Amino acid sequence: MAIRSLLITISILAISACGFQLKGSYTLPEQYQQIQLQVSDPYSAITRDVTKRLKDGGVEIVSSQGESHPTLVLGKDTLERSNLSLYPDGQVAEYRLTYSLEASVLEANKPARQLSLQVQRDYLDDPRQALAKKREMEVLLSEMRQQISDQLMVQLASQ
What we know:
Blueprint: H1 2-17, E1 34-39, H2 45-56, E2 60-62, E3 71-86, E4 92-106, E5 113-124, H3 130-157
Parallel strand pairs: 1-2, 1-3
Antiparallel strand pairs: 3-4, 4-5
Helix pairs in contact: 2-3
Pfam family, one: LptE
Protein name: LPS-assembly lipoprotein LptE
GO biological process, one term: Gram-negative-bacterium-type cell outer membrane assembly
């Protein structure tokens, strides 16, 4: 029993020593504990996802810009769709979806830090199942926005 407890303790120490963190748990640097969020559309889905990730990370979103508060500017988010394959009748069978977000971090007395984030997914399209594919596309876009939000948090944490 003592050996088992010792092995568990050593395993826990080894995992924590290597920097292991659960997915979605980001420790942001001290200067990002309060941040101003500047967006063109405060009600967009990407704004909601980024705001949720920031709050989950313990960040307080402030409304007025101050000397000590950095500003996260969310720029344009785009979804591009390119053809990967066709059915014999010429209809598109498979798409590659590319979701991208331009952002920047503004801090006092530092140059602006530009962030360009991108996620790609392949999507099979079957015109015979239009309703199911519409729902699948909505879920896929939601997952891609979450991945972009996670990438943004990783970029902020790596500062």
